[in-house]
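Course assignment 3, question 2. Fill in each field.
Student: A.L.
Task: Predict the tertiary structure for the chain below.
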Amino acid sequence: MNYVEEALKGNQLAGARLIRLLEEGDPQGIEYLKALYPHTGRAFILGLTGPPGAGKSTLVDRIITELRRRDLKVGVVAVDPSSPFSGGAILGDRVRMQRHATDPGVFVRSMATRGHLGGLSRATGEAVLVLDAMGYDVILIETVGVGQDEVEIVDMAHTTAVVCLPGMGDDIQAMKAGILEIGDLFIVNKADRPGADEVVKQLQVMLEMRTAHDEDAWRPPVLKTVAVRNEGIPDVVDAFYAHRDHQERTGILAERKAKRQMHFFRELVKEMAAERIFGAAEGSAEYDRMLEGLRARQIDPYTAAETLLDQTLGGR
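Answer field:
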């Protein structure tokens, strides 16, 4: 099978195999991705994050249905915690989304974080590129958890939704330090529970403070949903596209795409440089002495790192 040609035709088996190669760090996967890259840059990338128990997977399932109703092809990358034993995704392909398995216009892929900080797998960005090249109109990234580390999704998505739920109490205040700054819209799911209106009010007050001094800024809406009953889902999808329209009018979308490319580029450079530096140093007598000095606290990590870089890069 010619994976590149088949992926460009939308062949899901070819796409799945390409993503697996990239997850495994196979050099051939990178070569395939190089060929696919000129065909990327068209998809609308959505991020969705929130605390465990907020109903994110059910919400994503209903969003998929609404997007398909609008005749849009949808790719989903669900980032799960890694199994500490196998390194694989604990939840696997999301059970709640399996009713879309026979729909050729939907592709759902679970990926493990593999211990990567920020809640996003290293290969997540590569998987998004594959789905983009395959012709999916919307790519939705669902991440695990909520908190300071989750802000990495901003570097990957064009629009980010934060899911909250009634009963969070003081957790809403704690979110202000990190997650509130990344949300382009906020979804209070399970809004049929007591306390939903109070959560909405708290969020609206905090968000008003965030944008109070900038008349041209996007004001993130706070929307209520009951995903299990499919309530409020069309409004959520409308809000996604309203935010995209705003970004296009203001030029922010082009800036976000450029920022995403630069972030991806920088991360690749860091990873490749680290691999080459350690690959060149490991096994040498000087490197072994440096490690022994670190263990004995005869040399600090900063000096060791500077020395290693000077030796590898010739002091440049």
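Instructor remarks: The CA atoms of residues 191 and 226 lie 6 Å apart. The mean pLDDT is 85.
Grade: pending
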